[in-house]
């Protein structure tokens, strides 16, 4: 059998090696058990204590599916728990490689072999368990469901009452139907579609096995079956590529080289298991590696757009960045002969790829290729930087690479395009004709009376429009090109293209997550894409900025909300705090990544679409987001997102900092306000320190409110709003309070007695007793001691002032 075919067999067997655990947890009727016993009678008789073990169930499932290699892959699956020593066949080599990769992937704890009759546990959520303080958290569990249909965590009491068998059976039946389709095998047999077959298998496993545990241990399971499957496959394929041809060198009818390599790795695994070493052993040579890719210059690229079609271009550029990282990760994976499972994470403009150690000989070459291609597309405005680390077995078992790779990346940013400097200075520059001020390309006049237009910049508006108009997207392979004239042609430089369509098939991605059906499409797009719409003359149209501003209460303005997860690096580093002696395995890192991805890529968008229909999710994915909407809705939306994340994670140590920026005029450039919101996020919200707390805040107007302060802040705001609007108290109250706030800020004598006098006279003038009571209550609330005012009063006054302004004519507010 050819090496490429052997590699495909290994990959598929690795992905499905534990699928029997999924099947076992449903309802195994006696007829099915009988057929499995008959199929694997020899193996079961050889080890009767294991009975109908998951590897036999999994091999039977695979053999009766429509997946390729129905004879070969089950051999690996059914024997992956055996301790093979004399490797006499190619399948022995592949099985041993799978066995070792399985052990490395599951290194977070030793597995306890159990019978299928044992009571099934639910998977414990990692995001609810991590602690930046090193504390042990109460357990929360995931109900059995598809990845995109997650409905919230359960506490221990709920989990104990949960009837999981019915949900396992229902979920399994759906999955079984999908891997039993004839089209699946045909897509593998078609060489041009084979990459789509592997992609579909990956996403089917992701959708159906991300919320179920990989195994049961002496302690609670907290790694998903999906994360364990893909990390096992990534390790197996990387090891295969590391040694490749030599694995199948025979001596005296045995694969001696493979035996020697595998014995060495197993010896190291045993040593690390018994020694609890905090350093790699001297004989632990790098066999794998990790590559991190990072898109540099994102903010300037996304927001450097002209006003014309600005919102479409912003949406299009955000989408482009997400898929540029995806396409480049796939480009490297394909060149290395790896699979999509080797992309451990891709989101937020960066990616991680597990590779064989020998791939590092080509890292500089890949960087030069990226520099050449991206310079042609964007000059020096946008680049993708690659850094990496060779991994010993110790590094793989204790997967703490994020901080080291981040440091390397910072150093690499100072050497951008250094590999192609000589060729840059020798290239001719075309200075003839009008050029685009944003990308420096030649501009064209579409008609005699029309303005000049940049075809390249306008192509991002086209993507933004397609995201709204169409229902599905395809990411397809194509021939590589040299000189891109549009955004989509940048993807073609790396051998891929984006295609939008209204007609789904099993290889398309749903743009609307609610329309995703695994029977009709591959998956859903990486980024959130909710768009506020309105009916105009019976036609549904995207809400424009003017309409969005009109929907605002008070001042007719739109605004931008930006936010991201606080302390992301520390969150991943704290995996080791989940349980005593917890290792940070690749599987656990992958599981935590998927839980973060689910919130920012799915849950946040659902929340906005349901609760804040007037807002647009410009982008949301990875660990950050940007939302555009009527300005007055954004502070409440930010609180809603913070609460929703708290409910989702059940972890009070985790938080999202956010910033609201309000457009000073209706026609203010979207990109400028986006930059301002980003600056507020970094300089205010992320830097807000108080009472031993840091970050976890909302930047609003010119200040910050911590999430632990927001409920009290909002209560005061609502009371002042009631006084001004419901009781029709003079708005001079707001102006007067601003005077005292300014005195306090400038550290001038506040003369607080004047405020006492003013409030007393104001109360006297009221004829409504409730108004008198509310004014007195508000005054008591904003006094700290007898001489100081509530420190957030300026933000509160600005909010109420803007929200209670009634008239706006021709852009002038009164």
UniProtKB/TrEMBL annotation:
Task: Give every GGDEF domain span.
Answer: 556-698
Cofactor(s) named in the record: a divalent metal cation
Q: Which GO terms describe its biological process?
A: defense response to virus
Q: Signal peptide: which range, if any?
A: none
Reading the lineage from the top rank, the first entry is Bacteria
What keywords are assigned to this protein?
Antiviral defense, ATP-binding, Endonuclease, Exonuclease, Hydrolase, Nuclease, Nucleotide-binding, Transferase
Please provide, alphabetically and separated by semicolons, the GO molecular function terms listed in this UniProt record. Answer: ATP binding; endonuclease activity; exonuclease activity; transferase activity
Q: Does the keyword Nucleotide-binding apply?
A: yes
Q: Does the keyword GTP-binding apply?
A: no
The family database entries (InterPro entries) matched by this protein are listed as: Cas10-Cmr2_palm2, Cas10/Csm1, Cas10/Csm1_subtype-III-A, Csm1_B, GGDEF_dom, HD_domain, Rev_trsase/Diguanyl_cyclase
PROSITE patterns membership: GGDEF
**Family stated for the protein in its record:** Belongs to the CRISPR-associated Cas10/Csm1 family.
Protein name as annotated: CRISPR system single-strand-specific deoxyribonuclease Cas10/Csm1 (subtype III-A)
Q: Which gene encodes it?
A: cas10
């Amino acid at each position: 059998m050819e090496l490429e075919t052997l590699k495909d067999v290994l990959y598929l067997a690795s992905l499905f090696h534990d699928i029997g655990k999924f099947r076992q947890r449903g309802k195994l009727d006696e007829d099915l058990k009988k057929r499995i016993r008959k199929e694997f009678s020899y193996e079961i008789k050889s080890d009767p204590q294991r009975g109908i073990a998951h590897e036999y169930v999994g091999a039977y499932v695979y053999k009766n599916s429509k997946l390729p290699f129905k004879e070969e892959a089950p051999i690996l699956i059914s024997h992956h728990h055996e301790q093979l020593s004399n490797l006499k066949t190619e399948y022995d080599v592949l099985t041993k490689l799978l066995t070792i990769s399985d052990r490395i992937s599951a290194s977070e704890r030793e597995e306890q072999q159990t019978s299928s009759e044992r009571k099934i546990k639910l998977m414990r959520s990692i995001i609810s368990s991590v602690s930046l303080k090193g504390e042990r958290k109460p357990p929360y569990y995931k109900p059995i469901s598809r990845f995109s249909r997650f409905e919230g965590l359960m506490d221990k009491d709920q989990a104990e009452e949960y009837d999981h068998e019915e949900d396992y059976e229902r979920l399994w039946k759906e999955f079984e139907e999908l891997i039993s389709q004839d089209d699946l095998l045909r897509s593998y047999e078609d060489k041009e579609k084979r990459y789509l077959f592997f992609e579909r298998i990956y996403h089917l496993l992701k959708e159906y096995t991300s919320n179920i545990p990989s195994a049961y241990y002496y302690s609670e399971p907290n790694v998903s079956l999906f994360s364990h499957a893909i990390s096992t496959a990534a390790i197996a394929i990387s090891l295969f590529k590391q040694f490749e041809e030599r694995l199948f060198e025979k001596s005296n009818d045995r694969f001696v080289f493979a035996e020697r390599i595998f014995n060495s790795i197993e010896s190291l695994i045993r040593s690390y298991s018994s020694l609890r070493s905090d350093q790699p052993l001297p004989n632990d040579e790098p066999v794998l590696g990790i590559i991190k890719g990072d898109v540099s210059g994102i903010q300037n690229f996304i927001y450097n757009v002209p006003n014309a079609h600005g919102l479409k271009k912003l949406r299009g550029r955000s989408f482009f960045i997400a898929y540029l990282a995806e396409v480049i990760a796939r480009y490297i994976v394909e060149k290395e002969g790896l699979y999509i499972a080797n992309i451990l994470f891709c989101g937020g403009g960066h990616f991680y790829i597990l590779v064989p150690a020998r791939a590092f000989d080509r890292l500089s070459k890949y960087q030069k290729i990226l520099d050449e291609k991206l310079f042609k597309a964007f000059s020096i405005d946008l680049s993708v930087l690659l850094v990496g680390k060779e991994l010993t077995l110790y590094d793989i078992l204790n997967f703490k690479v994020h901080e080291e790779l981040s440091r390397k990346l910072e150093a690499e940013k100072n050497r951008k395009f250094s590999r192609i400097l000589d060729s840059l200075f020798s290239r001719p520059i075309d200075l003839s004709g009008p050029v685009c001020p944003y990308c420096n390309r030649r501009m064209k006049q579409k008609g005699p009376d029309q303005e000049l237009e940049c075809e390249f910049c306008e192509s991002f508006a086209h993507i933004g429009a397609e995201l709204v108009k169409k229902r599905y997207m395809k990411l397809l392979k194509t021939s590589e090109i040299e000189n891109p004239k549009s955004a989509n042609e940048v993807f073609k430089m790396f051998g891929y293209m984006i295609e939008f369509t209204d007609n789904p098939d099993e290889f398309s991605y749903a743009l609307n997550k609610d329309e995703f059906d695994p029977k009709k499409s591959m998956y859903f797009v990486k980024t959130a894409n909710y768009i506020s719409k309105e009916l105009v003359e019976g036609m549904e149209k995207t809400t424009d900025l003017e309409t969005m501003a009109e929907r605002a209460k008070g001042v007719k303005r739109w605004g931008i909300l930006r936010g991201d997860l606080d302390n992301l690096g520390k969150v991943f580093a704290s995996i080791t705090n989940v349980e005593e002696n917890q290792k940070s395995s690749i599987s656990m890192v992958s599981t935590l990544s998927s839980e973060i991805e689910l919130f920012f890529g799915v849950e946040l968008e659902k929340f906005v679409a349901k609760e804040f229909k007037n807002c647009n999710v410009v982008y949301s994915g990875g660990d950050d987001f940007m939302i555009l909407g009527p300005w007055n809705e954004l502070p409440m939306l930010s609180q809603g997102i913070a609460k929703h994340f708290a409910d989702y994670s059940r972890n009070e140590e985790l938080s999202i900092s956010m910033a609201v920026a309000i457009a000073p005029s209706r026609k203010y450039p979207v990109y400028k306000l986006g930059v301002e919101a980003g600056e507020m996020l970094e300089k205010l919200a992320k830097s807000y320190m108080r009472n031993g707390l840091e970050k976890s805040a909302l930047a609003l107007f010119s200040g910050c409110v911590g999430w632990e302060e927001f409920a009290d802040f909002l209560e005061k705001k609502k009371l002042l709003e009631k006084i001004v609007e419901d009781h029709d108290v003079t708005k001079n109250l707001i102006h007067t309070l601003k005077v005292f706030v300014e005195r306090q800020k400038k550290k001038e004598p506040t003369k607080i007695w004047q405020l006492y006098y003013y409030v007393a006279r104001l109360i006297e003038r009221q004829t409504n007793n409730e108004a008198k009571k509310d004014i007195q209550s508000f005054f008591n609330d904003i006094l700290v001691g007898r001489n100081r005012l509530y420190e957030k009063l300026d933000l509160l006054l600005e909010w109420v002032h803007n929200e209670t302004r009634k008239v706006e004519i021709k852009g002038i507010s009164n």
